[in-house]
Amino acid sequence: MGLQDFMTVFSNLDPSCKGFVTSHQVLEFCQSIYHSSISVEQIEHAITQICGSTSSGRVSRQQFIAVLEEIERRRSVEEQAYWDFQALDYKGTNRISLKDALMMFREFHGDRFSLYTWKEFLQSRDDPGEQVYFDEIRLWLCNYPSGEPASKDQITQEEEQLIKIQSRHQSDTINKLKQIQDDKEEIQEYLDNAQYNAQRRRNKWDKQGLEAMLFDDGLEADDEQHLL
To answer: Gene3D superfamilies from the xrefs (predicted)?
Structure first.
């Protein structure tokens, strides 16, 4: 499509001549021309990147082509990142390790890779030590990094730190699983005791009546008969 074609598209999206189109209109247009879907988050980030954070999702005629180019860049990056992620997902769990996630950040951010942005990503997660799934990383890979580019020494130190984080996380996970198993055993013991006592009290009621059950001494009805 040439420049005139894009201007025609903009005019069609803005029939009332307000001078801008919304993120929703841009999304609908992109969905009509791309075979693969593109998320509303990518559209919004593209508009913010080109039009600024105060644009409220509005794109002017002058910014329209630049926004579409940014969307196309993001679509291309996300598609490539998806297949790279699949290649790193050796076990088919839809997760990759933190170290592999760091490698993807370095790959897609290139010389601009920043530990500041990487740390922001880690801090945005509920559990920084957990493995990484694609949906939580795709926008970060498409966004331009902030902060100073990282040096080789800084990257090496970060990789070593990630190994420690993952090791600590695995240890914590094992301990939690052990605790869950212990809790299950305690719960089962409680249920077994409750079932036993319920049956014992029913036996008392059947053999000795309501009063014996109300003033329960913890013995079986047969044991009490033996004591008598």
So the answer is: EF-hand
